[in-house]
TrEMBL record:
A molecular function GO annotation: transmembrane transporter activity
Membrane disposition: Multi-pass membrane protein
Residue spans crossing the bilayer: 13-32, 44-68, 83-100, 107-127, 133-149, 183-202, 228-257, 269-289, 295-316
Coiled coil: none
Name the UniProt record assigns to this protein: Iron complex transport system permease protein
Primary location recorded for the protein, binned into one broad class: membrane
Biological processes per GO annotation: siderophore-iron import into cell
Organism whose genome encodes this protein: Alitibacter langaaensis DSM 22999
Family named by the database record: Belongs to the binding-protein-dependent transport system permease family. FecCD subfamily.
Keywords: Cell membrane, Membrane, Transmembrane, Transmembrane helix, Transport
Amino acid sequence: MNSQSGAKCGQKLASLGLLVLFAVVAFLFYQLPNRWEYALHHRVLNLIAIAVTGAAIALATMIFQVIANNRILTPSILGLDSLYLLIQTLIIFMFGFTTLMSVNQTLLFLVSTSIMVGFALLLYYFLFRRESQNIFFLLLVGIVFGTFFQSMTTFMEVLIDPNEFQVAQDIGVASFNRINQDILWLALVMLVATMLWSLRYWRYFDVLALGREQAINLGVPYQSLAKILLVIVAILISVATALVGPLTFLGLLVMNLTFEFMPTYKHKILIPAAMLISMMTLILGQTLVARVFTFNTTLSIIINFVGGVYFIYLLLRTSKKWQ
């Protein structure tokens, strides 16, 4: 990357930072009521949750796409979102929604996160025991498990009480308005720790993005590195999902916007840019939901709709290239 391109990327990162700052100010202070203390405190907590979620999903998706060498795939294909919904629905099915509401939320967060990470580790262990096994077999198994978890969730939702069914449906929608403060700080600590752990591997990303064979030829320990990075992905996605709920298409949307906006292949620049774009998307989206739509819709619905349409567009564009 030459100096001119580097300067251009630096300018774009700075502009993204300013846009995020503008979005933060708008989110915190726009239509602030007269009794602003409680409202501002609540918005600050929401903002921290948005930052944690946005950074976690952006980093996890970037790492996952580097390993898979594919800009359409996201970590949701591993089935962790579906597993989270299954855990919550199973608690409602077995013990009732009052138990879900009354149980210690920090404990529930830790249990949900641990189960999701444990599932991912178990999946990796059985699939990567043979050195010849590739990432696409993992994705296929993830799709199968995700479908199975969704089917089990739907089956239990059909059997439970209609009132409990509504609670189960609400859990399946990501929300930044029911954030538990204790969980938020715990998630923040887990995110920072995982990000610091991932920093030592960032230098490999540019080579890994070339593909498995090229990375191995250039001396990268691909198999062991892929296992470690997939564990990092599992932790990040589990933390984000257990904190606010599933945001299926956010990673896809953010990654492709990042690659379109940043004229570089250097991941040390792409990752911060992706995090900023992810945060800005969530902040502006939540501002629209709260101030414009007055909570008549949810942020996840908007993101999934836009992301779904964009996903179809990417598939059509890719298919045209192969014709």
